[in-house]
Structures are given as C-alpha cells and as structure tokens.
C-alpha cells in the first residue's frame, strides 16, 4: 500500500490555523482533512445547555477554508465532536455552516451529519440488559435515577461511523461526539494502514501542531500512515518535529502515556521507537493496537445543578483577611436566616452559597500548602446556586450585601468590607451542569447508536463508494 | 535545587472529566534520572500533597520524552459547581517548589 496522508487543520475547530500551512499540507496529497471540534475539558456546559465552544464566525472561518481545500484536493473533510460536546443541535449548526460554505463552490457538496445522542429509553433498556458498566477506578454502577435526571447523553463513537460516511461518498462529515483519535484513524484504516500506526498517528494529530517545535494548538499537522509505521511532518516550515516532541505528545491530556483506550481496543505505544529522518520529520515504529473483547462506547451525560449568580470583589483590609473563615461563617448564618424569610418556599438544601478566596486557596482548595500565608489583598468570589435564575440573583443579593456590611473584630460600627470592580456587581451566569456518567455501553454493532443523515447534493457517482472500506 | 529549576515543563491538565494528570518533563536523560533517582516524589508524597488516596495515585516514568507522569483522581468532576479548576490547568503548583536533594558525588559538567 501507499502511505495514507492525514492532514489535521488545527487542534480544535475555530482555534484557527495558518492558511499557508493548510495549502502546503494540500500539496502533500492528503487522503483526508480532519479537525476535532470538542472535548469534555471545558466542563459539562456545552453538553447540558448546547452552548458552542467557539463562535459561529470562528467555525465558519476554519470550516470554509477546510472545505475549499478539500474540494481542491478532491478529498473528504471530517470534523468530530461538533460544537464542543457533539450534541445533535451542534452537529446541525456545523452542517448549516458547511452548507453555506458549499454555496460558494462550483459543485454541490454531499454532507453527512452523524448524530450521537442516545435517549433515556435506550439507556434504561441497555442498563436493564446489563450492557452498561462503570469505568474504573472509582465508578459505581449506573443508577436508573441518574439516567432519568440527565438532560442529555452522548455516546462517543469510534472510527466506524466515520468510515461508513466516507465510504458512502461524503465530501464533508460533521460528526457528533467522537473519539478524537478515531476521527484521524478512520481513513487510514479504510485504506489499509496498520491499526497501531493509524491510532497512534491519530492521537498525535488530534492536537494539531502541539507535537511540533515550536508547539501550537492553532496550526496544521500531518502524518503519513503506513502498515507498520508512520511519519509526522509539520506543514508549516517554521515548525519541525523531533523524536522527543513526538514522544512527549503521548503525555498530553492522557492518564497513561503508553495505553490509550478506544471503543474497539487499546493503543499500546510501549514498544515504540521514534526516529528522526533528519529533515524535521519523525518516523514512529512499533505502535500496536489490541482489539477489545467487546466494543464499548463511552457515555457522557450532564444533569442540571441549578442556576448561578456570582459577584467578584476584593478585600484590602489585612485585619479582615486574618479572620476571614470566621467572618464568612457568620455571614453565611445571617444570609441563611434572611433567605428563610425572603424565600420561605425554599428549604436550605434548595440552594447553595459558595465563597472562593483568590490569593489564598481558590485554585488548589484543601491541597493548598500556603493557605496560612499572610496576604495584603485577596479576591472574593461569591456565588449562589438556586433552582432558577431569578432566585439565584435574589439570594446572591443578600449574600453580597451581608458580606459587605457584617462587622468584624477590630472594626466597630457600620463599615463596607468589599471593593467591587464593577457596577452592577452581580452577574447572572445561567444554568450550571455536572457530568454524571462514568460508564461505557457495550454495542453489538459499532454503528448502533450513530445515525447518519445526508445533506446537500444527491449521492454522486464521482467517488466509488466503499473504496478500500472494510466490508461490513 | 527546586524542581522547576531542573525541569523543562511542569504542567497539569484534565485527563478526562474525572482525573488530573501532572507532567514533569526534563531536557535530557541526565536530569530525568536526577529526578527519578532522587525518589522524592513517590505515591505517598503525591497522596499527601494532593489529599487523595494512595491507591488512586499512578506515577509513570516515560523515558522516551524524559518525563514522569502523575495521574490522580479529581475531587469533583470537571466543571461541576464545586470544581475550582475546570481544565485542571493549575494543579501543578505543589510540584514546582519541591526541593530536590543535592546529589552526593555529582560532578559539575
């Protein structure tokens, strides 16, 4: 076989890339142009509320350039975890952007949207049949009540749904929640590359030029994937790869640099050898992929935690900073009493008050070794979480006012204890969510919960469907 | 010598929504060995500093990148209301100031 060249546009769709990097990548005859668009890193908000990780304008810029490049090269463009979390509505948003980009092209595009949301009924059914299991370490069996209070769940697809869409002639694939690695591994697997090299190259490409020197999350990267090895190359001439920069990338955002678990098996890089080709390219030998006994997809669910309102203020009185824990305990007691009378309909468990002390332990919490250090100034983040936005604002108002005006030891009489940076001082932050699943679902068919829907042009004859694809 | 003076990279990041991973990367094999052979960072040290159970701490030396990876559980899932660092990006602080023992018999190079 010939090596299969995969061009990664950037680390995240919307982060941008150098247009000339993409153009140089296209000159190297890629088989596919790929970009990941999401993660769980940003927290559960994109999954729970459907907010977009980057703006529509940022998506339009990157996706339009990728689509133009794909048409020039006559190769498919693949985007995964659309919009940040890969929910169905985020797939639709990117499909619309792709359709608009297609308007400017001479030939119509065939666009595949791949949807990855799973319903409560599906989850409850799989749970009842013993097909959902916890992921170690520290995860409990999934409870039906958790499924029932989940606002949305996605099942992270592997490479197979992408391969199906490409095999059926997609010019553009906009996929919902997808394993980052699988997005890049799909086309090399279809065209005969080795499983180990395909998955390992995918792990490196999913972060764009992060494995190059100098590293960048906002630039293109390329891999030439063969049967037993692959070669990494940075299309931007200002960057190069070294054996250490490529090896080091296995560390990034990964709990273990040697093993990476995918829906269909595990990538093992423990026997890898990283060889400099002397021209800024690196060849990686020895990646292996061990198929799993059962095909599993990771479930990601988000539940509503409440609505948040917050206020940020500074304290520059060292006397108060020195007794802050005691002070905030007294403030909270006063606030709870007042909220009892302002919102008699709420029990004390219906809302949360939270204070974070920046400059002291707001980043490490209980692990902060310097908590007792004396500070001349600290930042206070006050927040309230309540069943709706209006009551979050109401409760935060009481919390903010009492934190300003409660007296403390050494300061007699009415005083004002917070320096607010802004007027208004309180900010409604909308719905807050939490991830609530740490589980996988066993599938009989890798395409079982990935639904492909077609947009744009009618099926075209210009690409024979299924070229080199694994027969299914 | 403090760890941040010896290491090229000291960083932290989420490894999925339920784990934090800490990477210490050195410029060369010698510095990597100086650190690993010092033995100052072991499971007990990490568990104590980060207030996590010892049996959930993993320390993985990674010679191909002259690196050591430390993976610990998160106190709360990434982005939950009580999370303090959504991306897990600033959890490496306790490693930075770690004092490394002077190497006996070390020669200046």
The Cα radius of gyration of chain A reads: 26 Å
How many strands, what sense, and barrel or not for the largest sheet of chain A?
10 strands, mixed
Largest interface, counted by CB within 8 Å of the partner chain's CB: A-B, 46 and 40 residues
Supply the helix-strand structural class of chain B.
Answer: alpha+beta
- By DSSP, the count of extended strands of chain A is 21
> What's the story with the biggest beta sheet of chain B?
4 strands, antiparallel
Description:
- The complex is a heterodimer of chains A (472) and B (109).
- Chain A has 472 residues and is an alpha+beta fold.
- Helices cover 29% and strands 26% of the residues of chain A.
- Chain A is built from 13 helices and 21 strands.
- Chain A has helices at residues 19-27, 45-49, 56-73, 88-103, 120-128, 144-149, 160-167, 180-190, 195-205, 243-248, 318-321, 324-342, 389-405, and strands at 4-8, 32-36, 77-80, 110-115, 117-118, 132-134, 150-155, 172-175, 221-225, 229-233, 259-262, 265-268, 273-276, 282-285, 288-291, 295-315, 352-358, 378-386, 426-435, 439-443, 451-456.
- In chain A, the strands form three sheets. A ten-stranded mixed β-sheet of chain A has the order 13-14-10-9-1-2-3-8-4-21, with helices on both faces. In chain A, strands 5, 6, 7, 16, 17, 18, 19 and 20 form an eight-stranded antiparallel β-sheet that branches.
- The radius of gyration of chain A is 26 Å and the shape is elongated.
- The two termini of chain A are 21 Å apart.
- Mean pLDDT of chain A is 94; it is low at 461-472.
- Chain B starts with a helix and ends in a 13-residue tail after the last helix.
- Chain B is elongated and about 45 Å long.
- Chain B has four helices and four strands.
- Chain B is 24% helix and 23% strand.
- A four-stranded antiparallel β-sheet of chain B has the order 1-2-4-3, with helices on one face.
- With 109 residues, chain B is of the alpha+beta class.
- The A-B interface holds A 40-45, 137-139, 243-244, 247-248, 250-258, 272, 274, 300, 305-306, 308, 352, 354, 356, 362-369, 385, 432-436, 438 and B 13-19, 21, 23, 25, 49-51, 56, 58, 60, 62, 64-67, 69, 71, 73, 75, 77-87, 90-91, 93-94.
């Amino acid at each position: 076989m010939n090596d299969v060249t995969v061009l990664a546009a950037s680390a995240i769709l919307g982060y941008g890339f150098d247009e000339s990097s993409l153009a140089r990548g296209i000159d190297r005859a890629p088989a596919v142009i790929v970009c990941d668009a999401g993660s769980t890193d940003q927290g559960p908000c994109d999954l729970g509320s459907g907010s977009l990780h980057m703006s529509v304008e940022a998506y339009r810029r990157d996706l339009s350039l990728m689509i133009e490049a794909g048409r020039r090269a006559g190769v498919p463009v693949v985007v995964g975890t659309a919009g940040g979390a890969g929910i169905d509505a985020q797939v639709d948003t990117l499909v619309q952007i792709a359709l608009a980009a297609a308007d400017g092209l001479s030939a119509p595009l065939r666009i595949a949207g791949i949807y990855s949301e799973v319903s409560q009924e599906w989850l409850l059914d799989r749970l009842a049949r013993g097909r959902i299991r916890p992921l170690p370490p520290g995860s409990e069996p999934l409870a039906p009540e958790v499924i029932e209070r989940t606002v949305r769940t996605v099942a992270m697809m592997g490479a197979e749904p992408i391969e199906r869409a490409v095999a059926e002639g997609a010019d553009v694939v906009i996929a919902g929640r997808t394993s980052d690695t699988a997005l890049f591994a799909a086309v090399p697997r279809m065209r005969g590359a080795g499983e180990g090299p395909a998955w390992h190259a995918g792990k490196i490409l999913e972060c764009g030029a992060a494995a190059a020197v100098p590293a960048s999350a906002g630039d293109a990267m390329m891999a030439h994937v063969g049967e037993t090895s692959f070669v990494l190359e940075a299309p931007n001439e200002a960057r190069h790869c070294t054996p250490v920069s490529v090896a080091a990338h296995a560390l990034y955002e990964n709990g273990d640099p040697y093993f990476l678990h995918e829906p269909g098996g595990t990538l093992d890089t423990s026997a890898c050898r990283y060889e400099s080709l002397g021209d800024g390219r690196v060849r990686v030998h020895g990646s292996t992929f061990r198929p799993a006994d059962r095909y599993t997809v990771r479930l990601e669910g988000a539940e509503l935690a409440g609505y948040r309102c917050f206020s940020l203020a500074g304290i520059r009185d060292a006397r108060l900073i020195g007794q802050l824990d005691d002070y905030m305990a007294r403030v909270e007691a006063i606030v709870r009493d007042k909220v009892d009378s302002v919102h008699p309909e709420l029990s004390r468990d219906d809302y949360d008050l939270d204070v974070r002390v920046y400059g002291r332990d707001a980043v490490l919490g209980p692990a902060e070794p310097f908590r007792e250090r004396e500070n001349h100034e600290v930042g206070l983040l006050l927040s309230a979480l309540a069943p709706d936005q209006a009551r979050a604002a109401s409760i935060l108002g009481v919390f903010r006012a009492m934190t300003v005006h409660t007296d403390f030891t050494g300061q007699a009489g009415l005083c004002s204890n917070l320096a607010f940076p802004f007027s208004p001082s309180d900010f409604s932050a909308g719905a807050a969510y939490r991830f609530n699943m740490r589980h996988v679902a066993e599938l009989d068919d890798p395409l079982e919960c990935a639904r492909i829907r077609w947009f744009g042009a009618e099926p075209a004859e210009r690409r024979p469907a299924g070229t080199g694809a694994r027969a299914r | 010598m403090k760890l941040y003076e010896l290491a090229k990279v000291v960083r932290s990041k989420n490894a999925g929504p339920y784990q934090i991973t800490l990477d210490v990367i050195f410029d060369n094999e010698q510095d990597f060995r100086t650190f690993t052979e010092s033995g100052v960072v072991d499971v007990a040290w990490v568990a104590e500093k980060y207030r996590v159970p010892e049996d959930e701490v993993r320390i993985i030396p990674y010679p191909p990148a002259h690196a050591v990876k430390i993976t610990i559980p998160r106190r709360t899932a990434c982005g939950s209301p009580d999370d303090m660092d959504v991306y897990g990006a600033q959890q490496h602080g306790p490693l930075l100031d770690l004092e490394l023992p002077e190497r006996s018999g070390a020669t200046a190079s």
